[in-house]
């Protein structure tokens, strides 16, 4: 039996691959706990400068495994606990200072939308489709969908997704601001790695802190946000990376 999630770290890049292609990467217990463990490890490691979340098979993520719900979960309490486990992984990503790119090829639905929203930069294929679709199972959104969707696309558009069974085509998801790029279907994962490598090759620490500031800014008073910005830019100024880049910029400016 293959691992439900593939996890690797190489040259500053952590890669998490949902690996239940026969179930469209829907979450069961095994994937949930593997996801929570891998995201916690990736965001805690000082050598990780960027994270890619992608998936095996024809789809990114269909959310929760409905067949497992019907046959194996057994109770409302067990389903609630499983949602908490997966959400731990979402919190690890969104509260970290590591930028995350999602390669969401194929269909993303249900809780898979929460996984996509946990990324800071989402790439989809031209044939990708994205939706909520909880109500078709008589369920309500979880995995941060209601907590993050309205912030991403606005309340009215969020309501359109959660109150209809529609799947947004890729270009409409781009127009809404739900995703950052639409590429050829066979380029989704490669492009995600390219974006992550660009972060790593650039001012990786600054990108990570910028991500953290934006994410945290929606959850706290304005005065706290601007104070954190001031402290962060001061700390960044003292890093060798910033000193080298500032000196290079000044040298180039004097030559003009």
TrEMBL record:
Cross-referenced CDD domains: crotonase-like
EC number(s) on file: 3.8.1.7
InterPro entries per record: ClpP/crotonase-like_dom_sf, Enoyl-CoA_hydra/iso
GO BP, sorted A to Z: fatty acid beta-oxidation
UniProt keyword terms in alphabetical order: Hydrolase
An annotated Gene Ontology molecular function: 4-chlorobenzoyl-CoA dehalogenase activity
SUPFAM superfamilies reported for this sequence: ClpP/crotonase
Alphabetical list of Pfam families matching this protein: ECH_1
PANTHER family per the UniProt record, alphabetical: ENOYL-COA HYDRATASE, MITOCHONDRIAL, ENOYL-COA HYDRATASE-RELATED
Protein name, UniProt field: 4-chlorobenzoyl coenzyme A dehalogenase
């Amino acid at each position: 039996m293959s691992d439900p999630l593939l996890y690797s770290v190489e040259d500053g890049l952590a890669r998490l691959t949902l690996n239940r292609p026969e179930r469209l990467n829907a979450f069961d217990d095994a994937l949930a706990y593997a996801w929570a463990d891998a995201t916690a490890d990736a965001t805690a490691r000082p050598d990780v400068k960027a994270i890619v979340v992608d998936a095996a098979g024809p789809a990114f993520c269909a959310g929760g495994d409905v067949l497992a719900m019907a046959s194996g979960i057994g109770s409302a309490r067990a389903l609630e606990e499983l949602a908490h486990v997966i959400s731990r992984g979402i919190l690890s990503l969104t509260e970290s200072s590591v930028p995350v790119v999602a390669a969401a090829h194929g269909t993303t639905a249900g809780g898979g939308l929460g996984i996509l929203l946990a990324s800071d930069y989402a790439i989809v294929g031209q044939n990708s489709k994205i939706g909520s679709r909880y109500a078709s199972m008589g369920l309500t959104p979880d995995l941060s969908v209601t907590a993050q969707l309205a912030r991403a696309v606005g309340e009215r558009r969020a309501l359109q997704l959660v109150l209809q069974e529609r799947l947004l085509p890729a270009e409409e998801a781009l127009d809404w601001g739900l995703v950052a790029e639409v590429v050829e279907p066979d380029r989704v994962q490669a492009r995600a790695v390219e974006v992550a490598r660009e972060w790593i090759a650039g001012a990786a620490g600054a990108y990570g802190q910028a991500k953290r500031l934006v994410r945290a800014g929606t959850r706290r008073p304005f005065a706290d946000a601007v104070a954190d910005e001031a402290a962060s830019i001061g700390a960044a100024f003292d890093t060798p990376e910033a000193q080298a880049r500032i000196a290079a910029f000044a040298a180039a400016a004097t030559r003009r």
